[in-house]
Write a structure and sequence with these properties.
heterodimer; A: mainly beta; Immunoglobulin-like; six-stranded mixed beta sheet; five-stranded antiparallel beta sheet; 0% helix; B: Immunoglobulin-like; four-stranded antiparallel beta sheet
Chain lengths: 113, 114
Amino acid sequence: GQQVMQIPQYQHVQEGEDFTTYCNSSTTLSNIQWYKQRPGGHPVFLIQLVKSGEVKKQKRLTFQFGEAKKNSSLHITATQTTDVGTYFCAGRMARDSNYQLIWGAGTKLIIKP
Amino acid sequence: GAGVSQSPSNKVTEKGKDVELRCDPISGHTALYWYRQSLGQGLEFLIYFQGNSAPDKSGLPSDRFSAERTGGSVSTLTIQRTQQEDSAVYLCASSGRGGSYEQYFGPGTRLTVT
C-alpha cells in the first residue's frame, strides 16, 4: 500500500546544531504537510507544500518539496530547546482527490543536555 | 474560536469492558479523523469521515472498533471488549475538507486497559 517513509527515527543534537528530517513516498504526492508534536501534546500543523521544487521558510525552519513530488525535508538551523518534539510529515496521494493523509512515523528531536 | 475537544481526557477501564470516546470537531469542518498513538510511536490511522460520504474504515484494527458521526458533527469511537493492547492515546482531528487542508487535533483521550 501507499507509504511515506520518514528518517531518522531520532536525532540527538547539541543546542545550536542543525537538524534535518526526510520523508520519501513510494508514489507521487499532491501535497505534503508537516506537523510538530511537543512532548505530551498533540500534533500541530506547521506548513503545507504543493508545488514541485517548492521551498518555504518559517524563521529557522526550511521546508522543501522535491522536484518529483515524492520527497520532502524539514531543516532547522541552530536548534533551540523550544524545538524539542516529534516532527511528522503527512502526504496526500496525487491520484486521490479526497483521500486521507498518509503519515510518516515521525522524527524525534532531542537536545543533548 | 473553539478548537477540537475530546472527552474524557483520561479513561481507565478493565479488560473486557466497552468504552466510548467522544470528539467535538471545529464547527463547519466536514472532515473528521480518528488516530491512535501508542507511547513514543507515530500516528495510526483508524477512520475518516468526509461530509455525507461513506466513512473510510480501512484503519480499524478489528471488528471490536467502530465509530459514528452524527449530524455531520460529533463523533464517537467505540471499543468493545477492550484488550490491554488497546491502551494508547486516541486522537481526533478535523479539517475543512479532505487531504488538502490542515488537520486540527484535539488533546486526545488516554485509554488505559487494566
